[in-house]
Design brief:
Blueprint: E1 2-6, H1 20-28, E2 32-36, E3 50-51, E4 61-62, H2 64-72, E5 80-91, H3 94-103, E6 106-111, E7 127-130, H4 140-151, H5 162-165, E8 184-185, E9 188-189, H6 192-195, H7 199-217, H8 219-229, H9 231-242
Parallel strand pairs: 1-2, 1-6, 5-6, 5-7
Antiparallel strand pairs: 3-4, 8-9
Helix pairs in contact: 3-4, 7-8
C-alpha cells in the first residue's frame, strides 16, 4: 500500500510514522508513505498557498493551484483513491478502513487547513472523509487516523491476524472486557469464568459481554445489526418512511 499525504506540515507526521506498530510496518515495507507539500508547487516568491474567499467571510482558503499541482505530481497506481479530509465528509468507520485496505493500493490524502480548500479541489477527489462531527485545526489529525486504521489491517502489521477478528466494530459489536494478571487487584476480581479453563464457557461469556456492552454503550450499533439481519423489514420501513 502506498500513501501520499498532501500536507502543509509534513513534520507533523515525523514521530508517528516512526513509532509503535505503525513504524514497524513501514520499516518492514508493509506500506510506504510519501509526504508532499503544496507550498513547493507555488509560483510566487512568498510561496503563498491561501487567499481570501470570494464573497467575503472570515478566514482564508487554500488555493486550488498548489493542491492540483501537488496531486498531479504523484504517480498513479491502478487502484487509487484521492481522499479529502474535511468536516463535510463521510464519517470514518471500520468498514471504510477495511475497504481501503482490501480494494486499493494507493491512497492520496489531502489535508485541509484554515477555513478549508477551494471547492474546485473536489474535482480531484474520489471521497471526502471526516473524523467526526467536530472541527479541528488541521486535516493532518484525521489523515493520521485513517493512515493508522488502514495500515493495521494490512498483512504483516499485526502479528496475530486472529486478534483483528475479535476487536470492536469488526463484527458490528464492541469488544468484550479483558483482564490480565493479577487475578485480584485492589479488591477487583477477574471473572471466575476466565480462570476456569473452559473455553466453550469463556466464548459464551465473551459473546454475552459484547452484546451487553454494545447495548449499554452503543445501542445504535445493535440497531444497525438488526437492520442488516432483516433487509426485507428494513426495506419496508424505508418505504413507509418515504411514503407516509
Amino acid at each position: 500500500m502506498r500513501f501520499d499525504i498532501v500536507t502543509l506540515f509534513p513534520e507533523f507526521f515525523t514521530s508517528p510514522l516512526q513509532s509503535g506498530l505503525l513504524g514497524k510496518a513501514f520499516a518492514k515495507g508493509v506500506a510506504e508513505v510519501h509526504l508532499v507539500n503544496p507550498r513547493d508547487f507555488t509560483t510566487d516568491k512568498h510561496h503563498r498557498v491561501d487567499d481570501e474567499p470570494y464573497g467575503g467571510g472570515v478566514g482564508m482558503l487554500i488555493k486550488p493551484e498548489p493542491i492540483f499541482a501537488a496531486v498531479e505530481s504523484l504517480p498513479v497506481l491502478p487502484r487509487r483513491a484521492v481522499v479529502l479530509l474535511t468536516p463535510q465528509g463521510q464519517t470514518m468507520r471500520q468498514e471504510m478502513f477495511r475497504a481501503f485496505a482490501q480494494d486499493y493500493e494507493q491512497l492520496v490524502l489531502i489535508c485541509g487547513h484554515y477555513e478549508g480548500v477551494d471547492e474546485r479541489v473536489t474535482h480531484l477527489v474520489d471521497l471526502e472523509v471526516s473524523l467526526g462531527d467536530f472541527v479541528l485545526t488541521c486535516g493532518e489529525i484525521p489523515a493520521l487516523t485513517l493512515l493508522n486504521g488502514v495500515t493495521r489491517l494490512l498483512p504483516g502489521t499485526i502479528g496475530k491476524v486472529e486478534s483483528l477478528k475479535a476487536e470492536s466494530f469488526e463484527e458490528g459489536l464492541l469488544d468484550y472486557p479483558q483482564y490480565t494478571r493479577p487475578a485480584t487487584f485492589r479488591g477487583w476480581q477477574v471473572p471466575e469464568v476466565l480462570l476456569s479453563g473452559n473455553h466453550a464457557e469463556i466464548e459464551r461469556w465473551r459473546q454475552q459481554q459484547q452484546l451487553q456492552r454494545t447495548r449499554d454503550r452503543r445501542p445504535d450499533l445493535l440497531a444497525k445489526l438488526s437492520e442488516t439481519a432483516d433487509p426485507n423489514q428494513h426495506q419496508s420501513n424505508s418505504s413507509e418512511a418515504s411514503h407516509p
